[in-house]
């Protein structure tokens, strides 16, 4: 009888419903990157201000993801996810109506984006522990479902520039409203198709939660911090380069609208494919994961140096950024697996929430950082980024050990 209940809970529509959440939240952020130059012209804002449209979303998520993780442990996954999706829906409406009706909508756009960021904090990171709740001790099915959800996330990144450019071609503020429409679809799916099993154990009190978190970081801190730093670094590069590409494709290569969206999707398609393939191949083997991580960090460090130098030649620029996309895409499922495999089941929810939060740091600071350096310090900034990648490479080689079933710290 229990197995029948589990089958009913984890139906195909349940999986589709869970996969819709990272897809919607990815679209909610990445879809705006190709149309930021349009926002600058229509709203009358600077490049730095337009980058804050992306950053405000991510900053809100950074601080609230751990809170959302704790609340979902205490009160239930669905109870946290649904209001979060509603906030994302409302945020899109506020940003869209302000852009449509107000002469100076920038402040209200920012308010809408912060609400969407709060929604992202309470929705996407909760999926990992939710999948664990639904499948319980079936690691094979859990991994399979998480693979589908990760593919949904990366596929959203591929779709984002194309959809954003298509919507903006009709009305420049339509991408804001589209986020609300996508959020509404996800709300309906989650409400009707996700059936969360009842908890048998009482969740930990807040003081216990804080103590357990401190103990985990004290015991496993070294390698966990390395994983976090690599996650921040990759998201910083990805969103910084996407912001740069969106600007350079329009101003230097005269690519606009849907055509620009398709060109932006090329390196992101590489990211999606490599993420999917890597996720299926690693199968929890830490030695394989470390080897691929080292190779990918070498590719990342080498390719990022040439992004600025190739910006005047579209073909070379796409080759370099596609190599970068392949490298980043390969690393993301490896980091997810290291966090999952290296932490005990009872403690994964806490650590994964902090890991998700750390990745949003990179998302938050990539676009504004690029807007500051790309005018006078573009090549220098990319060379520095390559140097940071080399430093992280040495840290990974030293602190991520493969002599046991866990990513133990070096002694």
UniProtKB/TrEMBL annotation:
Q: Membrane-spanning residues where?
A: 12-39, 51-72, 79-100, 162-194, 223-249, 261-279, 291-309, 315-335, 380-400
Stored Pfam families: MFS_1
InterPro entries membership: MFS, MFS_dom, MFS_Efflux_Transporters, MFS_trans_sf, Sugar_transporter_CS, Tet-R_TetA/multi-R_MdtG-like
Instruction: Write out the entry's keywords from A to Z.
Output: Cell membrane, Membrane, Transmembrane, Transmembrane helix, Transport
Q: Which CDD domains match?
A: MFS_YfmO_like (cd17474)
Q: Keyword Transmembrane: yes or no?
A: yes
Enumerate the spans annotated as Major facilitator superfamily (MFS) profile domain.
14-404
Q: Where does it primarily localize?
A: membrane
Give its localization: Cell membrane
**What is the membrane topology here?**
Multi-pass membrane protein
Homology family: Belongs to the major facilitator superfamily. TCR/Tet family.
Please state what the protein is called.
MFS transporter
Please give the organism: Halobacillus seohaensis
